[in-house]
Amino acid sequence: MADNASQRRMGGQPLFILSEDSQRTSGKDAQDSNISAGKAVSEAVRTTLGPRGMDKMLVSDSGDVVITNDGATILQEMDIEHPAADMIVEVAETQENEVGDGTTTAAILAGQLLAQAEDLFDDDVHATTVVEGYHEAAEIAHDAVDELALEGDVDEELLLAVAESSMTGKGTGGVTAESLARTVVDAVEQVRGDAGVNRDNISIQTQVGASSGATELVEGILVDEEPVNEQMPGDVEDASIALLDVELGVRTGDVDAEYSVDSVDQLTAAMDAEEEEIKGVAQTVADSGADVVFATDDVDGRVASTLADEGVLVFENLSDDDVRGIASATGARRVGALEDLEDEDFGSAERVRTEKYGDEELVFVEGGAAAESVTLFVRGGTEHVVDELERAVRDALDVVTAALDSGGVVPGAGAAEIAIADRVRAESAGVSGRKQLAVEAFADAIDAVPRTLAANAGLDPIDALVDLRSEHEAEGRAGLIVDGQTREVGDPVEHGTVDPAAVKHEAVESATEAATLIARIDDVIAAE
Ligand code: ADP
Ligand code: MG
């Protein structure tokens, strides 16, 4: 079809500027195809929005299964090839990277902006007019979000509400959602300083095997390693910690050297020399005063056994990431040669202990002296539960951080969108020419969020929209609150359903950007 279209336009003359294999789609065909692709992607995540949103099971080529409700994850896992569709996936990715939540909202908004653009094109509104109108409407929307932000400090109660709202519908379920929110807020409070939240100091570690209610906050870091020798102590208090970039054994250089051994005496001497070296290494480490050693390289079995006798806890082959984490939490400095190890290179922690989970073992480094590092230790019955819980917790950490660090919170449950659309519609009257139609269309696109929340909760979307608007008119704030089996129009702030303002800003921003980018395209030239 694509080639026919170009052929038609070229009056049957072959195109000679493009290779024979490249595909070209132009004008309305290109626009239609891009818009349909974009809409299709946004459609794919629609049913996951909100507390009553459903999950998706995604099966990859190799049979790996992911079960999730998270918009960004769904779109990443889908094998999307259409370039315009891919741009909607990018909207979700940007949203995830910038604020960590609101990915479904952003994708739905982008899809709706495209659907509205299609109608405008059918009414002969030019693409540039649509683009200008959308940008103007987005400005109004940003102002509206700023105005919606709740007055006063973002206190702990509000943070708990933000965390819990972001996790609703993520398979966390009832009681656990509340305790998870508590854990998340505690984690953020721990790493909060004068300069804001140090989000990098919060890690997440998952472990299958207990119920999700067993998820806890560890005041320190967790490393997926086991001691090099079973006889070593599994629990060390007031630990002095060394980070060694050293192979603890016979020096690699010596192993390659050739000995010519002519007699039994010489052989014994060589072995003795090696034995001496091993002893020397072990003794140097033991004498250094280290209670716990994290080595980036191998640790010889004989060194390990001597150190076990000395009561030193040793781990080998640490990853760079883990070493960095331990260094920043405990204040230990990496040392490249044993003879360079000095007092100030040691870090310390209140406690280092190992814990067995099935056939896996984890090291807990708690109460590090250098920095407040905390780890959310996420538990769950199965791999899939833990994975989805990890995504939920990650989102929650991000939204709590966003609420504290950028712009506060706005009412959730569709109330923000109802207010934004209302404001955009009201101000559209002042926009001249056909651009006004695009501004109005933008408001209609925003309505898709409360409409979708309603539809996913099993309500008629049109009736719900009407109810929400009249309540908004009367009370100034109206959301569609879903709580278990009940759904009611009311004040989401009272109910504790709130989202960070940053999530709404970012959704408007990235959806507008992608939709206007796609709407402007009228020619697609694809190499083979
Ligand atoms: P997203 O990927 O966009 O974050 P979610 O599935 O997390 O999608 O849904 C977020 C939306 O659900 C937000 O608009 C939020 O305000 C709303 N929401 C959260 N909790 C409730 C609730 N109890 N009742 C109604 N809406 C809620
Ligand atoms: Mg969410």
From TrEMBL:
Keywords per UniProt: ATP-binding, Chaperone, Nucleotide-binding
Q: Which InterPro entries match?
A: Chaperone_TCP-1, Chaperonin_TCP-1_CS, Cpn60/GroEL/TCP-1, GroEL-like_apical_dom_sf, GROEL-like_equatorial_sf, TCP-1-like_intermed_sf, TCP-1_chaperonin, thermosome_alpha
Return the annotated region ranges for Disordered: 1-37
> Keyword Chaperone: yes or no?
yes
Origin superkingdom:
Archaea
UniProt-listed Pfam families: Cpn60_TCP1
Q: Give me the stretches of Basic and acidic residues compositional bias.
A: 21-31
What GO molecular functions are on record for this protein? ATP binding; ATP hydrolysis activity; ATP-dependent protein folding chaperone; unfolded protein binding
**Of which family is this protein a member?**
Belongs to the TCP-1 chaperonin family.
PANTHER family referenced in this protein's UniProt entry, alphabetically: CHAPERONIN (PTHR11353)
Instruction: Supply the name of the protein.
Output: Thermosome subunit alpha
Organism the protein comes from:
Natronoarchaeum mannanilyticum
For this protein's source organism, the top of the classification is: Archaea, Methanobacteriati, Methanobacteriota, Stenosarchaea group, Halobacteria
Gene of origin?
A: thsA_1
